[in-house]
Write a structure and sequence with these properties.
Elements (H helix, E strand, L loop, with lengths): L14 H8 L3 H8 L7 H14 L5 H8 L5 E5 L3 H6 L1 H15 L5 E5 L3 H15 L2 E5 L7 H7 L4 E4 L10 E5 L1 H14 L5 E5 L5 H16 L9 E3 L4 H14 L5 E4 L2 H13 L9 E3 L5 H4 L7 E3 L2 H16 L6 E4 L2 E3 L5
Parallel strand pairs: 1-2, 1-3, 3-4, 4-5, 5-11, 6-7, 6-8, 8-9
Antiparallel strand pairs: 10-12
């Protein structure tokens, strides 16, 4: 580092300092910083060693003027703010994406848009080039955000398949339908025959696919579908509690319930306890996610594990590939049945 003439305060190292330390031209250093094209391995090694020795930090603003990129990525949650703090899955996904991007020295910007006005404002911000791409979480059908970002040419990867967009948008998802099938088969394997379900929102891919898996297994087992055993929720604990109350009122002989999220399952357990139903003796309960909510219940919740670490790392990988010019891609990851005391 070089010393200033006033107060002895050190100036931050510059690209010129790195070039001098490495014994190469400033242009070579610039090419290394912008991807290493047309730089020999030995020169690149010398530059990277000089960066470590000098403590040089890239001026992202200056580099963005040259590359046309912001060197940042947005994490866009299209849900009300309170859902971000209530649902543990969002925090796990955010942490995983942050860690995956940190390996590429790329910061992640959290953006929450729970209203139409917030979504319009954030879409304008993103389309203006303030981030290089977007990791989109919780996309409801009828929500125009994914389509508007795609039309604006913004690299985009959704968590879960955006309803109605098909292969037009990259997405990474757990196999919701197969996970639901595994859970309902497990409940039937316990000898239960009156299996209820509290679905997720039916304008989201997870809500639709998990309900489809439930119906497939019951139909295949020759049990048939009883609409009194199907109620919808919104992935919140309160909706799980309300859903269980509706199930008990409409089908009091229910002996098992598949709940489309662990957080809703917490509410279901509360309602069953209040009604005097023992779990699992009277009603077996199965959830979905294997989130922190699953291990904080009493009894412990049998559930379907989503591979959150892989989902977040794949979302980042697919997005960065798209930023680099590759076509949209789809990744479907397997789920796993986790058995605890509730079923």
């Amino acid at each position: 580092m070089t010393m200033s003439n006033t107060g002895g305060r050190r100036k931050p190292p510059t690209i010129h300092d790195v070039a001098r330390e490495a014994g190469v031209s400033r242009g070579t250093v610039s090419r290394v910083l912008n991807g290493g094209h047309y730089v020999s391995p030995s020169a690149a090694e010398a530059v990277n060693a000089a960066i470590r020795r000098t403590g040089y930090v890239v001026n992202r603003h200056a580099r963005s003027l040259i590359t046309g990129r912001s060197d940042s990525v947005g994490f866009l949650l299209t849900e009300p703010q309170e859902r971000f703090f209530e649902d543990p899955n969002f925090n796990v996904l955010l942490r995983g994406c942050t860690q995956a991007l940190a390996a590429h020295d790329i910061p992640l910007l959290l953006m929450i848009a729970g209203t139409q006005a917030e979504r319009r404002r954030i879409v304008r911000y993103i389309a203006a080039g303030h981030v290089d791409g977007v990791l989109l979480v919780s996309s409801h059908s009828g929500d125009p955000v994914a389509e508007e970002l795609r039309a604006a040419g913004v690299p985009l990867v959704a968590c879960g398949k955006p309803i109605g967009l098909g292969s037009k948008v990259s997405y990474v998802a757990a196999d919701d339908r197969d996970g639901a099938r595994d859970m309902v088969r497990h409940l039937l394997g316990l000898g239960r025959r009156r299996v209820g379900v509290v679905t997720g929102p039916l304008d989201t891919p997870g809500g639709v696919e998990r309900l489809a898996g439930y119906k497939e297994v019951l139909t295949g087992a020759g049990i048939g579908i009883d609409e009194r055993l199907i109620v919808s929720g919104d992935y919140s604990r309160a909706s799980g509690e309300a859903g269980a109350e509706r199930l008990l009122a409409g089908a009091p002989d229910m002996d098992a319930v598949f709940v489309a999220s662990d957080l809703m399952a917490q509410g279901v357990l509360t309602a069953l306890h209040r009604a005097g139903r023992r779990v699992p003796q009277d009603v077996a309960v199965g959830g979905f996610d294997d989130s922190q909510a699953a291990v904080s219940t009493s009894p412990g919740l049998t559930t379907i594990r989503q591979p959150w670490d892989r989902i977040s790392s794949e979302m980042v990988r697919v997005l960065l590939a798209q930023v680099g010019g590759e076509d949209p891609a789809t990744v479907i990851l397997p789920t796993e049945l986790v058995r605890r005391e509730s079923a």
